[in-house]
Amino acid sequence: MNFLQLPDRTAKPRTYGLTSIIDLGTPYKELKNTLMDYSQYIDVVKFGIGTAYVTPNLKEKIELYKEYHVKPYCGGTFFEKCYFQNKISEYVNYLKQLGIEWIEVSAGTLNIPIQERLNLISQFVKDFHVIAEVGSKDINHQMGVSEWKNEIELLLNAGCDYVITEGRDSGTAGIYDRNGNIKANLISSLLEDLDYRKIIFEAPTPKQQMFFINEIGPNVNVGNVKLSDVLVLETQRRGLRCETFFMEEQASTILT
């Protein structure tokens, strides 16, 4: 029954308007119950902070996500650990054995030069969909606006499907200050020249999510969403929460 006029939402399989959740160890049975009800609102899942390496029943969880048409991948910290120990080939084989078709390239912990990341991406795109992340987890490492734009453009031109703007699972780094406040001027500058449909904005808290919905529209790509917040996020996207209640109609993205 649909009788309200609400902002248009893209439908699965989406290419934008993505909700990317972070899995930090959700038990299999709990996950299955949640996906049965809410998988229509989930597009991508990241096994965060290296948890994929120690998660029980990982293969079964990956298969469950794929059964519900949610794309799984391992977070950048796992990738960087493998890079640091010169285990990239082993990492690639590991992902293939698990049936994971997406790979993240990041430099959130290690200072991996952009050219080195581009070289790795040129290898990965032969076998994977690639997501790259821009920004550091170190709050003291500040990037200028031009550096943000340049890296995002280079990574997309190298063949990445999407680029993630760093925010951590705490929302206190990258596009945020140490108190979790959004660097609004940075976001505004990025949106001037870049296609928001190719950027996933890490926004782990409802307050941060609502900023991007009001700034960009209901079909903004949002990442690092907690599994327990999926329905709340969709409610926000539909203008059914106070803070997004009066979302202007032009904020709705044009469906393609």
From TrEMBL:
Top-level lineage group: Bacteria
Regions annotated as coiled coil: none
Name of the protein this chain belongs to: Phosphosulfolactate synthase
Species: Lederbergia citrisecunda
Similarity-based family: Belongs to the phosphosulfolactate synthase family.
InterPro entries, per the entry: Aldolase_TIM, ComA_synth, ComA_synth_sf
